[in-house]
Amino acid sequence: MKNFKFLFYAFVILITLLITTVLSYSVLEPKAYDFLMKTTVTQKLPFDNKKNVYGHDNVVLVMIDDKSIEKYRWPWKRDLNNKVLKYFQEYAKPKVLVHDFAVVNLDIDNPEADKRFFDTLRSMDNIIEGCLLSTSEYKNKEQGKEYDKFFTSKYSLKNVDIKTNMPVLYESIRIAPKPYIDSVKYSDSIMMVPGFFDNGLSIALGDETCRTHEYLVNYKGNILASVAMRTFLLLKNNPKIVINNTNFEFPELNYKINLIRTPYQLIVPIKFYKRYNTGYSHKYYSAVDIMDSYDLLKAGKKPKIAPAEFKDKIVVYGANATAGNGLNDTKKTPMALETSGTDMQATSIDNLIHNDFLKIMPWWVNFLISLISMFCIYYSIKKFDLIKAVGNALSIMLVILVIVFISYYNGIVILSATPIILCIYTILITYINRYVTEEGNKRKVTNALGKYMSEDVMKKVIQNIDNLGLGGKKAAVTVLFSDIRGFTSMSEQMSAQDVSKLLNEYFSEMEPIVTKYNGIINKFIGDAVMAVFGEPIQDESHALNAVKCGYEMLKKVEELDRKWQEEGKPVIRIGIGINTGDVFIGNIGSEKRMEYTVIGDTVNLASRLESYNKTYKTQILISSSTYNVSKEFIEVNEISDVEIRGKAQKMNIYEVINVKL
After folding, report:
1. Among candidate residues 355, 388, 404, the one where a domain is terminated
2. I need a surface site. Which of 178, 416, 461, 625 has the fewest CB within 10 A?
3. Could you give phi then psi for residue 246, rounded to 5 degrees?
4. Per the omega criterion (within 30 degrees of 0), is the bond before 177 cis?
5. pTM of the shown model
6. Structure confidence by residue, pLDDT tens digits, 278-315
7. What span, in angstroms and rounded, lies between the C-alpha atoms of 541 and 535?
8. Rounded to whole angstroms, how far apart are CA atoms 23 and 364?
């Protein structure tokens, strides 16, 4: 039974621990990660002159913003976009121009504008266009099959060595017009998928925050690049890529990118940068200023933005305007509820070309931190009192938080919420276990004490367990003594075992009777019983109840005698003495060993009365003080002028011959 309980409790703890860990990692950990990304990773101390918190200067943005829409009403004619591209082709000469758009239809009203735009694209070797992937299958499967064949043959990466199984997420590509796709040299993924690093569970729980980038995509056995990866490959002259289980490797460059594997993607956490007042983490220029500068340059005038601003830089051209259908291209990120998707593309490029990635702490380090913390808290609770144990637990959690903040400040991602939650879990489970154990031990002690003292005395002791001490109070009670007549001579004729059995049976029958009448057995004295009525159980009728108790004890002994006669055992006779009066009741003894009892002349007289049963051949004798408060319910024989040992004056005592039960 004990083994079953242990296994059951262990199973419950294991299951609740697992659920707590999973929920904490999938619900709380992403929130903590977002908070630390915004407040720690992208911030720096005043004396830290080395840390870079903004996007690097060689990655810049050109945005179709509110200013651009105010001048040129949306939707734009293709010539306006073409003018931006012409500015970079003819004057600015950036190393790479990322066009964060996906053209999905033609300008039916102005096909000549389309032709001019496509011609410009065709003439640019350093422009990367975006494409959209989808998890849904093609509606027209034959058309989709043909498009996939064309697209992958033209744009998939060829210089790739795959040494691991790559997950598959996407089932189709948004089909672009043929004149457009024919003119584009590079068309790569601009997808941003939300979620944390937990195999998609956070997404299932409603997490819509984008935190990672998918640099390489397995599309039906073909490897497609993101615009960020394509940018890197163009800058590095298309080096070979080796895709391993835990990283992307560029052997020619001696460069590795650690990745996280999920069932759907191979992802890399984005290291976000602090945003300028413009709302972007990279320097940005308005598209309308680029177009105006192009016109001014064509006219031989000074441009608003000098082409040298973009010389040998990476330019990411996109849209983020509050007005206009489809222009508010924002994603929820750790940095803000609305972060420009174009700025996220720029950040992914920035991370890659500068090897500026977050370092993800291995799982076993996080596990070890949590395990050690939980053990230390468990040990502290077992070893120390409540205040010190809780103080130690808080100190341990504070140390964890300090480690977390230092790690994040240096770009190292370590679990933060989960270890704290597991520490709290350990505190709760340990104290629950401690409480259950102590309650179990208390019940054992209570059961054990109940065999040595009355239940009511035991309750009184437990209720005042923290204030136990010598002392007591004066109280009016009734004391009952009972004794077996001739027990000494009878026991000499019996074995010790038989004597023990007989006494145990006798006492077992007497105890319920005392309890029935609100009395407590104060002690067993050999074959004698001392009972107290009126304390600690408050009872105004304690004198009458004591008499009733004594009378019923006699009746019970008669039943026992008949039973024992049939069993061939000796019969017994008992004498009972009862007295009512004031006593001292409380803890008597020493600080180390005490007893809850009653003392005083009232007790002595009750004992004397019990002994006088031998003299007067009676069974129950009560004092006048007991008789006076119970005489209406009892029938007695008065015994007058009795000399009581220890008493100066003679007194009347009474033999109880009948009680109205």
Report:
1. 355
2. 178
3. -120, 0
4. no
5. 0.72
6. 999 999 999 999 999 999 999 999 999 999 999 999 99
7. 12
8. 19
Q: What is the pLDDT of residues 354-408, one digit of tens each?
A: 999 999 999 899 999 999 999 999 999 989 888 999 999 999 999 999 999 999 9
The half-sphere exposure of 462 on its side-chain side, counting CA atoms within 13 A, is 18
3-state DSSP assignment of residue 364: helix
Could you give the number of structural domains in the chain?
A: 3
Nearest to 352 by CA among 63, 61, 58: 58
Same domain, 349 and 438: no
Question: Could you tell me if residue 41 is inside a domain?
Answer: no
Cα distance between residue 490 and residue 380, in whole Å: 60
Residues 470 and 397 in one domain: no
Task: Give the model's pLDDT for residue 432.
Answer: 86
Other CB atoms within 10 A of residue 202 CB: 22
Q: In what order do the strands lie in the sheet with 266-269?
A: 212-213, 266-269, 260-261
Give the span between the Cα atoms of 211 and 226, in whole angstroms. Answer: 15
Residues 273 and 250 placed together within one structural domain of the fold: yes
Question: Are residues 253 and 236 in contact, defined by beta-carbon separation less than 8 angstroms?
Answer: yes
- Helix spans in 451-541 (H): 455-463, 487-492, 496-516
Question: Among 110, 104, 103, which residue's Cα sits nearest to residue 77?
Answer: 110
Residue 158 · residue 225 · CB < 8 Å: no
Average pLDDT, the chain: 88
Token representation of residue 541:
């009728």
Model confidence pLDDT, tens digit, residues 103-124: 888 888 888 999 999 999 999 9
Contacts of 156 (CB under 8 A, 6+ apart): 219, 222, 223, 224
Cα 106 off chain centre by: 55
* Exposure string for 50-61, b = 16+ CB within 10 A, e = fewer: eeeeebbebbbb
